[in-house]
Amino acid sequence: MQVPAAAERNKGPILAVLREFAGGGAGPLRVLEVGAGAGLHAAHFARALPHTRWQPSDIDPRALRSIAAYVEATGVPNLLPPIRLDVSQGWETWGGTQPATLDLLVSINMMHISELRCTEGLFKGAGVLLKPGGVLFTYG
């Protein structure tokens, strides 16, 4: 499992803001995290927000292995195994996520390090996959 220092530092402040959008509602909230990296955030947020179904994703095989290690090590039941997702590809390739089914789409530290087509894909996907009133949450 990778433990990026920046993720360790910012997980608390990001969680404080996420709580505003992921406050307990009726039934579990469906969350897709795009570009979950090492998986530290996914594990931390899923543990702190037990009413969510947290789906981490990444394109990098090394990141996917680290996320899988977090899923196994934490044993948090609402943290799903990672899926490979290339955000620059159409939403139809995003792990079977159906239109208007997500409550929250999260992207942390992806836009500033990826190509513009990834950011464009993120916004296009959000427009299709988020439920009415759903939130695209970006950081970094």
TrEMBL record:
Domain of life according to the entry: Eukaryota
InterPro entries registered for this protein in UniProt: DUF938 (IPR010342), SAM-dependent_MTases_sf (IPR029063)
Any single Pfam family the record assigns to this protein: DUF938
Family to which the UniProt record says this protein belongs: Belongs to the UPF0585 family.
PANTHER family named in the record: METHYLTRANSFERASE-LIKE 26, UPF0585 PROTEIN CG18661
Listed name of the protein: Methyltransferase-like 26
Lineage: Eukaryota, Metazoa, Chordata, Craniata, Vertebrata
